[in-house]
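Preliminary data (for renewal application), magnesium ion complex.
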Amino acid sequence: MRIAEARVIVTCPGRNFVTLKVVTDDGVTGVGDATLNGRELAVAAYLREHVVPALLGRDPARIEDTWQYLYRGAYWRRGPVTMTAIAAVDTALWDIKGKVAGLPVYQLLGGRCRDGVTVYGHASAATAEELMPEIAGYVGQGYRAVRVQTGVPGLSGVYGVGKPGSVYEPASEGVPAEPVWDTGRYLDHVPRVFADVRAEFGPHLKLLHDVHHRLTPIEAARLGRDLEPFALTWLEDPVPAEWQDGFRLIRQHTTTPLAVGEVFTSIWDCRELITGQLVDYIRATVVHAGGITHLRRIFDLAALHQVRSGSHGATDLSPICLAAALHLDLAIPNFGLQEYMPHSAETDAVFPHGYHYEGGYLHPAETPGLGVDIDEELAARYPYRAASLPVNRLTDGTVHDW
Ligand code: CS2
Ligand code: MG
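Predicted structure:
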């Protein structure tokens, strides 16, 4: 069996997605997500111009060899564009292998380690009062874990706080929006919100919070300490993710568990954090960290150090990435939680899939491969629309981390 064709499909069913579809000479197809939010066309060009020509004629069964060929062979290693492109190829080849074997991909990865994949939902609202019914809504649907984000009094909008009742969307059309951020107001507000949430929902609901890289290590240490009475499951991205020493300082001050990794692209980004036990959850994901093959390697390293998985799963990762993540989540021993934000109906229609939510768990499809596809005719009806993630500024206009 040989790779006969590989198509790069860019579509915007409400938001932009890039997909690689690999076709073999006997007609088996596999799909991989290649979406890099706000930089979609860079990955599409990397695939079209540099990767697809080298794939044609290769044996699709050689997943590891193809990974090494693309990673080592390019000489220019790592980076989000490269690793997203490699991920797309890797994911598509696992899909093909599953279809050829007649097995869902999690079976090829060693079989299930659990009955279902525990997911966390996203409760967010502009005010603390509006937040409570949002959280109650998730609890009512059976969620065991909820990420809680709120607006901050005095700030007009805060990244990560969606509009209640609508599909979460981190990018906006055109050039970046420039919201204003104030660390002091945030640090004052968030512990009060969690005090109310814990009082309302009791000790057993898992609560998470995403700082989105906006603090310095000592500010994050203070927040972690202030949140200790409310027993968070994790505090996410407390400082910019590349500042790994920052985690050492936070660790010296607080027992609030830490999570990081949605912007990581390789095991090299995670290595010190994992081996030093500076974090508790590693949130790298299939589409940005080199596919199923490489993410498995990261999770295996994490397992040695009692670090658990917590893969990124926002709406800007396509249903193909979510399907792939679920197969891996089911098969690794050190699974922690999976982020889950349902996609829009338009997106779900473009990516027909067999995974489903039930009582706090997601379950991958039992069909051979990943159990997800792209409807190319439908996808063609939604042309690409330029959209950007925001740029964060302080009240005096300084560009800040986010
Ligand atoms: C967030 C995302 O899901 C998360 O935890 O941090 O909204 C993230 O900012 C976006 O996926 C970026 O594209
Ligand atoms: Mg996050």
